[in-house]
Hints:
0% strand
Amino acid sequence: MMHLSAHYKILQKKILNFRLILVCFAAASVGLPIAILSIAKTLLLISGAAILLYGLIGKKFEVTAVNPKSITVGVTVILGLFALSLVWTTAATADALSSLGKYGKLLVIPVIVLLLKSRREAIYALGFFLTAQICLMLSSWMLFFQLPVPWATSSPVSRPFHAVFSSYLDQGIMAAVLAALCWHLRKLAPGRFGPPLAVALAVVSMANVFFVLSGRSGHAVGIALISLAIMWELPRRYKVGVFLMPVLLVSALMFISPTVKQRIATVQTEVSEFSFSKGVSVNSGNSSGIRLHFWHRAVQSISQNPVLGAGLGSWSSEFNRLNKQENAVAETIAPLGNPHQEYLLWGVQLGIPGIVLLIGFLLAMYRDTLPMAVEARRSAQSVVLALAIAGLFNSILYDALIGDFFCVVLGLVFAFGYRDLTAHPSDPASHPQPV
């Protein structure tokens, strides 16, 4: 009979392979239809928890000294406070619990970091993620050139806007993040032509954002990430000019990109047609007006519940309540809605402390990037900035797919940053440098 220790070594090897397969599947799934993404996320969380529990009980799962402590604590506090708000929420219990499940995707970030135990594993997982995102971006270009894309499953509304699996809003943000990662990680691309190819993919992906996809959130994220990348490449004495960069980029894009020019003109028209006193119908098609209407109601709700908020999942009930106060026959929205602004959504649910909590979480992630090597640090900070900017116009972490996208990519870039630091602790590039 094989000795028990031999059985354990075989099991440990299988667990190692299974861990990597789980994370790679999750990494690739955010570039696939939502059904596959849901399966991958569920497998990652359940199997990941089981593997971690098995290893911790048996004291065989080695956790390296460099780990996302701030992220892990932050996610725990966030989910704990959201769960506590179930006590006073104005939402129906089923809706509140569904909202808690939506925020449960935040667990993906620390789980991925803890499951990827080496730099090589992190690079493999990043490779799967980037490959899937590149295929997604190229599929969008194929739709643009009216080539057949039989795997596209986006709705008839999004298909003319060249979105493949989700909405053009989501895909624009994802393409901007892809471009930033290709640029900052270009030196890791294998082969003689790997780095130039990575640069070319970054350019093609960012062009997809500004010339193909019409999502204004993607445009804003793209401009922010380009400005940040330029700042990092400039000598220190010129870095102050980065504050002018977004203005210059918008001005340039107004001339060379019909898509950006048309979307900016649409915003101007929609805002001019909106009135805070009259509001706007959620079915009006006035995207900017609807957002302003939602944000107005969110601010009203926060002003009435500034300390505790109205509880988890309460946005729809709060919106309907405030609408009815002004007009008894005013329209209502369905449960599990959101105000298309992550910061205000947290404010409605948890009061002003909720907004502070979200900003603190973003700052904690930024702080966790500081010890990383240059490439990893810039990649991680770019993703955090993209999340912060996108959250100004959409409920990014609350929404499906785009929220999962950010949780997965954050887990991957932080895993790479920490494991790279562990692999090269004496490398000067792995210590904080001025940015």
